[in-house]
Amino acid sequence: MNFPVLAITLDLDDTLWPFAPIGARIDQVLHDWMLENSPATAAMFPVAAMRELRDRAFVDNPHLHHDLSALRRLALHRALQASGADLALLEPAYEAFFAARNQVEYYPDALQALQRMAAKVPVAALSNGNADLERIGVSHLFAFQLGAREHGAAKPAASIFHAACTRLGIAPAQVLHVGDHVDMDVAGAMSAGLRGCWINRDAAHWNHPSLQPDLQFDTLTGLADWLDANVAATASRSP
């Protein structure tokens, strides 16, 4: 399939890198930090209990679902408060979390493919998560990063896709959104008028009843190859 692509919006977690290993590391790093800095909190909220506290914060605060950083701080505040710890530990605990959150291991194909994509068209990061591309070290490959927290709404809301297109200065029909999630990424983008590319690394079944992805690959290399074959390079990555 060939159609005009003047820019890409790109999901991060589970598209450039798997999130599960990050999540497991975060849990252990936070527990170790609490053991050292607030043993009472570590005793009251071992890894499984802290995870339950985080999940409860998510369930109890649907108005914050676009802001995972606020939800994480809320869970940490509850843990420190319940264990009688000094609430001044909140921000240092969050920083320990955030440092671990931004230690990523790319899928084997991802970084080289991203470099190829960014050399072809402007690429904007569009994520519901709280990864920090500056900390991770790849911000130079992106025109900009737009997160759900900064925008005020999370994918699949059409507004976040439209905001990215507006910032790119490109009509939605000429922007390709790339991600792993059927609904939040591909169907959400296509419903907002963008093109949709599904990165389906696990040979999953496409389960959306009324839409089919414009493109589908099992690696980002497949997309980079498609861009090389179908899209002329643009002059710059400037937004």
Automatic annotation (TrEMBL):
GO molecular function: hydrolase activity
Keywords: Hydrolase
Organism: Stenotrophomonas tumulicola
The keyword Cytoplasm is annotated on this UniProt entry: no
Coiled coil location: none
Keyword Hydrolase included in the entry's annotation: yes
UniProt xrefs under Pfam families: Hydrolase (PF00702)
Protein's name in the database: HAD family hydrolase
SUPFAM superfamilies in alphabetical order: HAD-like
PANTHER family referenced in this protein's UniProt entry, alphabetically: HALOACID DEHALOGENASE, TYPE II (AFU_ORTHOLOGUE AFUA_2G07750)-RELATED (PTHR43316:SF3), HYDROLASE, HALOACID DELAHOGENASE-RELATED (PTHR43316)
InterPro entries to which the protein is assigned, alphabetical: HAD-like_sf, HAD-SF_hydro_IA, HAD_sf, S-2-haloacid_dehalogenase
